[in-house]
Design a protein that fits this description.
With about 325 residues, this protein is of the alpha+beta class. It has nine helices and ten strands. Helix 1 (about 15-25) runs antiparallel to helix 2 (about 30-40) and helix 3 packs across helix 9.
Length: about 325
């Protein structure tokens, strides 16, 4: 999992995190303190200038923390909260709802639907969708050029979309339908990365593979003709012919990437039911996070998800076109 913090600071122990998480899902003060501990550890710092000369602002009437849980920096004299510079900045939802949603999104193997969060947190569907999209954005890998995959790399395609409406003809699977194609690439004993592609032509798939796979890697695919020619660009290109009932020849197979696709299929069928092409990449980032963190326990995965929220913002401001 990614560590977006640039400064070294004491880690919150996972045992303490697990003990405090249930309370944080029901108590706002506990939720704020949990998010502060995950983000800053024992060394709170200013989100504006990085100074550690900071203090909590207290309420003179009650003697407790201020109503907005503010901090103040003695160096730049600015006020801030743990929300600043994270996916929950400018959100009016209580942090206890964010804590619960992070926990559900990180521990549910097939994902969590916004309708579930709506019912369980007693918030509107619009707010639940707002919350879940930002959590999925936090789970996505940091923008940039990731290290290329090495060793044995498997590639395959997935088609996401529902069944046709009654009267529209027989139901076709996969290639040749109007479903949204997704390219999946996984490094054995490593991470998976999936992306929505415009089509499954040789040009599109090979371009994506070149971006994510090291030329010294062994590439494994099925018999799809779009992969022909990869042996000239990588250490080797080996394939299995699924149409002939061939699924593994020695260590040549695509079972790892297909296993990761199974997680998406079960989630789409049993949890989300329908996902628009516009937001599909958010759901893929969520499933990538779950797959790549499958060897973590639930507490470690939730902890990593909350840590990954720092330094990320997601806004839907309209883009003004020039006249």
């Amino acid at each position: 999992m990614e560590n977006l913090n640039t400064k070294k600071r004491p880690e919150l122990k996972h045992t303490d995190f697990i003990e405090n998480l249930p309370v944080a899902c029901t108590n706002e003060t506990a939720a704020v303190e949990l998010f502060e501990a995950v983000r800053w550890g024992d060394t709170p710092c200013c989100v504006h200038c990085g100074s550690t000369a900071v203090y909590k602002m207290m309420d003179a009437a009650t003697g407790g923390r201020s109503k907005r849980f503010l901090w103040r920096c003695r160096d730049c004299h600015k006020q801030y909260t743990v929300r600043i510079g994270a996916v929950y900045e400018e959100s009016r939802l209580p942090l206890r709802h964010w804590a619960y949603a992070f926990w559900r999104a990180s521990t549910s193997k097939k994902g969590a639907a916004a309708l579930e969060i709506m019912r369980q947190c007693q918030i509107s569907y619009k707010s639940a969708l707002f919350l879940m999209h930002r959590i999925r954005f936090a789970m996505a890998k940091k923008p940039g050029t990731p290290p290329k995959m090495t060793g044995i790399v498997e590639c395959d395609e997935l088609y996401v979309g529902g069944k046709p409406r009654p009267g529209t003809g027989p139901h076709k699977r996969g290639r040749g339908t109007k479903k949204t194609p997704v390219l999946g690439i996984v490094q054995r004993d490593g991470d998976v990365h999936r992306r929505v592609v415009t089509d499954v032509s040789a040009y599109t798939l090979k371009h994506a593979i070149r971006q994510m796979v090291d030329p010294q890697a062994r590439v494994m695919t099925d018999e799809c003709s779009s992969y022909l020619g990869l042996k000239d660009e990588f250490a080797s290109h080996e394939s299995v012919c699924h149409s002939a009932g061939e699924y593994a020849v020695g260590d040549v197979h695509t079972n790892t990437i297909e296993s990761s696709f199974a997680l998406i299929k079960r989630g789409m069928i049993g949890v989300h039911h329908a996902v628009s092409k516009k937001h599909l990449h958010r759901y893929l980032a969520h499933y990538d996070f779950l797959w790549n963190g499958r060897k973590m326990n639930d507490g470690e995965r939730t902890y990593a998800a909350i840590r990954s929220a720092e330094g990320k913002r997601l806004t839907y401001r309209p883009v003004l076109k020039a006249n």
